[in-house]
Amino acid sequence: MNRFKTAPDYTFEEVQNLKLNPTCLQFAAPGEKIVASYIPTLEEVLLSLQDKEITIKIELKGPDTAIPTLEMVERLDMVDRVHFSSFNHDNIKTIRNLHPERNDNGAHVYKTGALFSEPPMNFIDIARSVDASEVHLKYDTCSKERVEEIHAAGMGSMAWFRGPKGMHEDTTERYFDVGNEDESMYQTVLQSGVQALCVNRPEVLLKLLGRNQGNNEGICV
């Protein structure tokens, strides 16, 4: 039976030789940049950011990814720059079990984020059970009440947006009062009090924050 390959079916060499489709809705970057691009390794990405003063959030997707990713971040001496997140909360529990240490201010040295798509009623208890540093909610579930719960529990907050294809579906089939990651959408989510956003259109968000400078100091892209 013929079937399409999924990511785990490819070898490293095959992934390096894949040609990216510039018209694919999953890519937010301009088409001319996609044509000359390739899929880098995580280590290549981290090395390219070593001299940049930014926080890097790594989502642990596959099984058995927590420990090798952790070891790579430690080897590159980037623990203070990286946050580990996952929908599979056992991944971040693994990191926390290995590194429960905290700074003098009580904050975790190793930062972890519990990802939720549709947060259940007890999502705070779930995040606490793995001693997460942060809770990451899908943008349209990021209400003021939930964010206040997160902060009251002593955790940081982030709202994540779906990929370009998913956001196109949302804004053409579900939400008609805001554009596809336009300023009005970002402003609506920011009103929840969330501390960070994971977005596809950082240039739009940065323009908005530039005008609101001083009101959203905790927001990062």
Explain this structure.
- By secondary structure, the protein is α/β, with parallel strands linked by helices.
- The chain folds into two domains: 8-39, no CATH class; 45-211, Phosphatidylinositol (PI) phosphodiesterase (TIM Barrel, Alpha-Beta Barrel).
- It contains ten helices and six strands, in the order αααβαβαβαβαβααβα.
- Strands 1-2-3-4-5-6 form a six-stranded parallel sheet.
- Helix 5 (89-98) links the parallel strand 2 (82-86) and strand 3.
Summarize the structure.
The protein is 37% helix and 12% strand. It is α/β, with parallel strands linked by helices and 221 residues long. The chain folds into 2 domains: 8-39, no CATH class; 45-211, TIM Barrel (Alpha-Beta Barrel), CATH 3.20.20.190.
Write the layout of secondary structure elements.
Blueprint: H1 12-16, H2 31-35, H3 42-49, E1 56-59, H4 66-75, E2 82-86, H5 89-98, E3 111-116, H6 123-129, E4 134-138, H7 144-152, E5 156-160, H8 164-173, H9 183-190, E6 197-198, H10 202-211
Parallel strand pairs: 1-2, 2-3, 3-4, 4-5, 5-6
CATH-level-2 architecture of the largest domain: Alpha-Beta Barrel
Backbone shape: globular
Question: What structural class is derived from the secondary structure elements?
Answer: alpha/beta
User: How would you write the strand order of the largest sheet?
Assistant: 1-2-3-4-5-6
Number of domains: 2
Helix percent reads 25-40%
Task: Give the helices and strands as they follow along the chain.
Answer: HHHEHEHEHEHEHHEH
CA radius of gyration is 18 Å
Count of DSSP-assigned helices: 10
Poorly predicted sequence stretches spanning 5 or more consecutive residues? 215-221
Main sheet attributes: strand count, strand direction, barrel closure: 6 strands, parallel
CATH evolutionary superfamily of the largest domain = Phosphatidylinositol (PI) phosphodiesterase
For this structure, the CATH topology of the largest domain is TIM Barrel
Number of strands: 6
Fraction in beta strands: 5-15%
* Top CATH class of the largest domain: Alpha Beta
Terminal CA distance:
43 Å
* Overall pLDDT confidence: 89
